[in-house]
Amino acid sequence: MNEDELIKKLAEPIIRQIERMSTQYDGKISQLPQIKFVFEQTNEPIVIDGIEITDEIIQKLENYLQDELEMICSPTMLH
After folding, report:
1. What's the pTM?
2. Which of 6, 18, 25, 76 has a Cα at 20 to 30 A from 46?
3. Which phi and psi (to 5°) does residue 27 adopt?
4. How many CB atoms lie within 10 A of CB 29?
5. In whole angstroms, what is the distance from residue 22 CA to residue 28 CA?
6. In 10 A of CB 79, how many CB atoms?
7. Per-residue pLDDT tens for 45-64?
C-alpha cells in the first residue's frame, strides 16, 4: 500500500459520515467545515499498513478531506 491508498483508506469513514450529515441538511450548509487533525508525537512511531504516520501524511489527509468536502457539500453564501 502506498501513501495515497492509505490516505484514501483513512478518509473513507470520515467521508461517509460527512455525506450522511450533508443529506440531513439537503446537501447545503451555510459554511464549509474545516478539517484539522491534532497529531501528538509519541515515543514510538505510529505505523499503519507499513507506513509511518508523519506530519506530512496528516497534512495530505487534511487536504484530501478538504477537497472531498468541497465536492460533497455545496455551501451557500449567506448575505
Report:
1. 0.78
2. 18
3. 75, 0
4. 17
5. 7
6. 3
7. 999 999 999 999 999 999 99
